[in-house]
Design goal:
By secondary structure, the chain is mainly alpha-helical. The protein is built from 3 helices and no strands. The radius of gyration is 14 Å and the shape is globular.
């Protein structure tokens, strides 16, 4: 997670001033990581591997949830 999110690499760039905003950013990252991103070793998303969903989600679907 630290390698993918700029908020965790340096305190001077893109840090969250409020803990609430950090929580939202982390939640969005995990939604994208588990539902949208196809992993090389699995060849599917982690949510598909766990049989939580049957298709790769798009960003539009995550936005509809918000």
């Amino acid at each position: 997670m630290r390698m993918n999110m700029r908020r965790f690499t340096r305190l001077t760039n893109a840090f969250s001033k409020k803990i609430e905003n950090l929580g939202y950013a982390v939640a969005l990252h995990f939604m994208y990581y588990n539902f949208c991103r196809i992993h090389k070793t699995l060849r599917v998303t982690p949510a598909m591997e766990a049989r939580v969903t049957d298709h790769v989600w798009g960003i539009e679907e995550i936005i509809k949830l918000i």
